[in-house]
Write a structure and sequence with these properties.
8-stranded mixed sheet; 13 helices
């Protein structure tokens, strides 16, 4: 017999409106969406809290923070994955795209180990059924890196890979176009000026030699696949034009308004960082996501490095940016799901997967109280 759960006295955030109503879940699916309050025995009273679809996070680096909670302390990888999963679920994220880095440009050599361990851990834990959220892989390919293609090939056809982003963190471009900003980061990392100068020259030479061939090989390898392709840290309309010509349809974290507007004009979808919304601006001096939202130049949010930022960014956007709550919630649910090719989740409607998040407002702060994934309560 299929298990049935009735959630009543809730504000249901539907695709077009928010209504006071009742939700019936049968098995893993939403069976009914009804206005008003149910009086049947066994109905769970939501005390007037919001019910929103489960959040879909297409880019989170949160696993890296669990693997290395302190700079000199690496945590056992599988334990870190379980902790990461629990934190995402507690933040209302029922679908997680673990963004793992392929390719070393001298930022953190341990990232390669995190990628390799992360794939192995996901294989085992997904099969076990013990994870609270659904996990997929988002491969962050550092295009100018000499080791990127060798790392990519063994996982290119992995069934959990749903997104690939093309990154370039070389000094002098993208997020690091300001070389003094790049130098300051390296100084804080303990490097002396001579070492920084030498490293900048090496990386710029490497980019000149490898970016083009690596990019072509990667794009050729992915041509015809269903994997979502994204660019990363776009700065100029020229970069957007190159990406659009190469069939890339997502611009992830553009660093300037010009790039975001160019992406929209080219028919691309734009992802901004939810922490940028919550903090009121970029932590690295790039364009404010709130400005992108007001300009109609952003479609979805990703958590980047703080999973709880997604629900908070949605409610904050509805409060401050003159969009409706259903529109704001869609930016962290249905829209990112569609970007990644997931068509069974992201909205509260009959026949859709029962990924649900119960949210209560404390003044203006949304607090996640309960979470269901595919009809099963996980938080």
């Amino acid at each position: 017999m299929t298990h049935e759960t009735v959630l009543t006295n809730a504000i249901l955030v539907l695709p077009e409106e928010a209504i006071a109503g009742t939700l019936v879940v049968r098995g893993d699916t939403i069976a009914a969406v009804e206005p008003g309050r149910a009086q049947i025995p066994g109905a769970l009273d939501m005390d007037g809290d919001y019910l929103i679809p489960g959040v879909v996070d297409v880019h989170t680096d949160n696993l890296e923070r669990q693997v290395q909670p302190r700079s000199m302390a690496r945590w056992p990888s599988r334990s870190a994955m379980v902790a990461h999963d629990a934190q995402c679920a507690a933040a209302g994220v029922t679908t997680v795209f673990d963004a793992l880095c392929l390719g070393d440009l001298g930022f953190d050599k341990e990232r390669i180990r995190t990628f390799q361990d992360g794939v192995a851990d996901l294989d085992v834990l997904t099969e076990s059924g013990l994870l609270k959220s659904d996990h997929f892989l988002h491969l962050r390919c550092e295009v100018p890196a000499s080791d990127m293609l060798a790392l990519f090939e063994p996982v290119a056809d992995h069934p959990l890979v749903r997104m690939v982003s093309l990154m370039d963190h070389s000094p002098g471009v993208g997020q690091y176009a300001n070389l003094e900003f790049y130098r300051d980061l390296r100084r804080r990392g303990g490097l002396d000026e001579a070492t920084i100068d030498r490293r900048i020259a090496e990386l710029q030479d490497q980019r000149a030699r490898l970016r083009g061939p690596n990019r072509r090989t990667l794009l050729d390898r992915l041509r015809g696949s269903t994997v979502a392709l994204a660019s990363h840290d776009d700065r100029t309309p020229e970069e957007i034009a190159e990406n659009a010509a190469d069939g890339i349809r997502i611009s992830e974290f553009p660093v300037t308004m010009e790039a975001a507007r160019a992406a929209k004009a080219a028919g691309m979808q734009v992802i901004a960082g939810a922490p940028n919304i919550v903090r009121g601006g970029s932590h690295s001096g790039n364009v404010a996501a709130a400005d992108l939202l007001r300009a109609g130049a952003v479609d979805a949010y990703a958590s980047d490095y703080v999973p709880p930022a997604l629900v908070e960014a949605a409610f904050q956007s509805a409060r401050e940016a003159h969009i409706t709550l259903p529109q704001a919630v869609a930016m962290v649910t249905e829209t990112p799901a569609r970007m990644a090719g997931l068509t069974d989740r992201g909205r509260i409607a009959r026949g859709w997967r029962a990924d649900l998040v119960r949210v209560r407002l404390h003044q203006t702060l949304p607090i996640v109280r309960q979470v269901w994934r595919a009809g099963e309560r996980v938080i």
